[in-house]
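Study this protein:
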Amino acid sequence: MADTAARKIDVHHHIIPDFYRDLLAQLTGPGGISPPSWSREASLEMMDRLNIDRAILSLSAPGALIAGTREDVRALARRWNDHAAEMRALDPLAFGFFAALPGLGDQVGTIAEIQYAMGQLKAEGVTLFTSYAGQYLGAKAFEPIWAELDKHHAVVHVHPIHVPGTPSAAPLLPQPLIDYPHETARTASDLVLSGRKRQYPKCKIILSHAGGTLPSIAERVAVLRATVFSGVFKDQHPSSGEIMEDFKSFYFDLALGGSAGVLNSLIGWAPSDHILYGSDFPFAGAATQHFDTSLKQYATEQPAAEGFYRENALTLFPLTGSIRTRLVKGSLGIE
């Protein structure tokens, strides 16, 4: 029988088609990282090596906004979505995808792409970045977009992006080291404190990288918001318990977050069935193997962690019966 704990569904798996890589290569790369090589075959090889049955594909930072003009951004998002849908059509057992969207400042284009990707392509969800033009995801300007996502019961994968107004890469502190985890905590806090998280409950929101620094500061944010800073929020008066409840309603992928310290912090308050496996392929390079090994060791000591690999994802993503059956049989070593 196969090792059922080792079979995985990867919800944080990037692809870099040539048409996107050509644009990415013109930059230093997101957060100071040069774009790695990628191919469909490379994804499949990595998945085989790490016992990943299915990967939910996504577009990493800076996303479609790299294209420049509004029309070019819309065209790039559409092209990437069609490409990802084609990959899934070739092997629906191996791949799903989170749709790329234009910047949220383009409300018309973004809503149209949500309708196309969720309605026609039947994407597994969408990718949003932590901020757009200096506005975090709880901004009132983004309400119509959240309303559209809520209408589709969308799974929303939130990925950190370059911090506005800062250098593309500090020599000793590239942004993925420190700023990306902070940005994830900031946008999650903004979603909760603005009331947006509770306003659109049909959206299931996955935070990248184990929620960044959110597990460490969630209670601090909740208590201070309800006490010291209560006067800042004139229209809403949630208790610290209600704020913590909203924080706990997020889902968390474990890309670059498989270490015991991070897991102990996260499991201390997040529901165990809201924690999902993620690799951050191909940008994480050799770090993917490091954290995969660390998570495997942790799972041997914490039986509840076995659900992180696949079962929690199977609950979140309503796969068709035939695909689900094949995944379950594969995890049990049944042909």
Q: What stands out?
A: Confidence is low (pLDDT under 50) at residues 1-5. The CA atoms of residues 256 and 284 lie 8 Å apart.
